[in-house]
Write a structure and sequence with these properties.
By secondary structure, the protein is an all-beta fold.
């Protein structure tokens, strides 16, 4: 039987981008019971941001399949 996956990700694993959103345009709500914060974004809209920092991995490491 073929193996089934819970999650599949396709993309670059050697680059991280840290984005600082514009605080005037970011909509954050707080759940009064749990204190959990949630960021709300309009679907399909490009969000304004103040800065982005891109970090490239120094050594290439590929993920290993679990046995």
């Amino acid at each position: 039987m073929p193996e089934q996956y819970d999650f599949v990700a396709i993309g670059d694993i050697v680059v991280d981008a840290f984005i600082e959103l514009n605080k005037d345009d970011a909509d954050v709500s707080v759940d009064l019971d749990t204190g959990r914060q949630t960021l709300h974004m309009p679907f399909g809209q490009k969000l304004p941001y103040n800065e982005v920092v891109v970090l490239n991995c120094l050594l290439y490491t590929s993920p290993s399949p679990r046995d």
